[in-house]
Amino acid sequence: MNTGEPRRIGPYEVLGRLGVGGQGTVYLAQGEAGRVAIKVIHAQGAADPRARRRFADEVAIASRVPRAYTAMIIDAAIDRDQPYIVSEYVEGPSLQELVERHGPLPGAALERLATYTATALAAIHGAGVVHRDLKPANVIIGPDGPRVVDFGIARALEATTALTTPVGTPAYLAPEQVEGADADVGPPVDVHAWAATVYFAATGRALFAGSNVAFIINRVLNEVPDVRVMPEPLRTLVADCLRKDPARRPTAMELLGRLVGYRSGNAQATLPRTVILPATLGTLKETTTLGSGPAADIVIAGAGIAPAHATVRKVSAGYRLHDHSGGLGTFIDGRPVLYATLRPGDRFRIGTAVLRLTEAGELERVRLGALYAARWWLLLLLAAVLAVAVIVAVTG
Questions:
Q1: Are 38 and 18 in contact (CB under 8 A)?
Q2: Which of 119, 129, 195, 321 has a CA-to-CA distance to 151 between 20 and 30 Å?
Q3: How far apart (Å, rounded) are the C-alpha atoms in residues 36 and 15?
Q4: CATH code for position 319
Q5: Residues with catalytic annotation?
Q6: Is residue 274 part of a domain?
Q7: CA 254 to CA 236: how far, in whole Å?
Q8: pLDDT tens digits along 271-300
Q9: What residue ranges are annotated as transmembrane (predicted)?
């Protein structure tokens, strides 16, 4: 560890520095529950008690974001000269580092990245949070796939500082952010940043690059991006997300729906499904995701704009089930799950379908006709028994 670095931050033992940016310094630390990432916010006007209260409120809201494809916020401290936020530590390179080292992502990997980050964005917006600083450096490629980090921190930072410039990275800001119209800064800024992030993943270049901040901001405000270098069908979707007028951009839920091929009343175009296995769900060995190990993606259309979405991956202990719908799309024994370990013979429900893992590592639909019929007969039998009991009780 470098000289001058803290050895402890609150109850956490600092193991090393992960990075430093305009908002603060990020440390790897050890806590009672394991390794965590701690972002220590730069001290700028944090002495205002009202600002600290707003900071606490913003972090509390952000902590409610489901952890599917996000790094969950665990803890925060507002009673320090430099407030800090503790989040789940995701081991792996950032998208920025991955592309700089190995080049742009190819076809299927690019589409998976787009889908996973859109899923995270939908979960973040669903909790009432606006990220405000989505960019390749804030997408970590973990062992189980991409995770979006630092959500809610930009807004919390604004609550503790008296900055006169927009919070965020200029090349990934939306026009309404650089114009300083705070009332207009909402979820559409994240959709714009998502498109710029996917463009970087596809090309290895920032969408709005420049030698200085003023030049970049001028491009953000006035330049219509040329995304023809991107492959279809992502090209059209990215172009829609980069519209200057935030009202004309799709919402995160519409974005996710178009990515997985679900057509809504507001979505005029759809993308072909990445790995959707409708009737015959196939074997895990046939598909892979951006994470590690053989896996199968499952998307089942259900209620609402976004379908239920989950991944089953082969791991040493069996098969790992990972729900990507914020714990609202996948159920085992009637209980919603984010993660679960499956073994051959286990059943789970995703959306409107009940699936079973076979001995051969295949996923198959469970035909529910006979099961439902049996349930109806059981209900009728119970009703008959209850009726007889009532009659006996009344007649003595």
A1: no
A2: 321
A3: 10
A4: 2.60.200.20
A5: 133
A6: no
A7: 14
A8: 333 333 333 344 444 444 434 445 676 766
A9: 376-395
SS3 190: helix
Last residue of a domain, one of 262, 290, 308: 262
One domain for residues 384 and 349: no
Is 163 found in the same domain as 54? yes
pTM for this prediction? 0.62
Query: Is 271 within the bounds of a domain?
Result: no
Residue 256, token pair as written in the block: 């996710």
Q: Which range marks the domain in which residue 361 is found?
A: 280-365
Burial class (CB in 10 A: 0-12, 13-18, 19+), 382: exposed
Average of per-residue pLDDT across 203-217: 83
Same domain, yes or no, for 19 and 159? yes
For the segment 225-246, the average pLDDT, to the nearest whole number, is 90
pLDDT per residue as tens digits for the range 143-162: 878 888 877 565 555 545 44
DSSP 8-state class, residue 333: T
Number of compact structural domains in the chain: 3
CATH number, position 133: 1.10.510.10
- Round to whole Å and give the CA distance between 93 and 98: 6
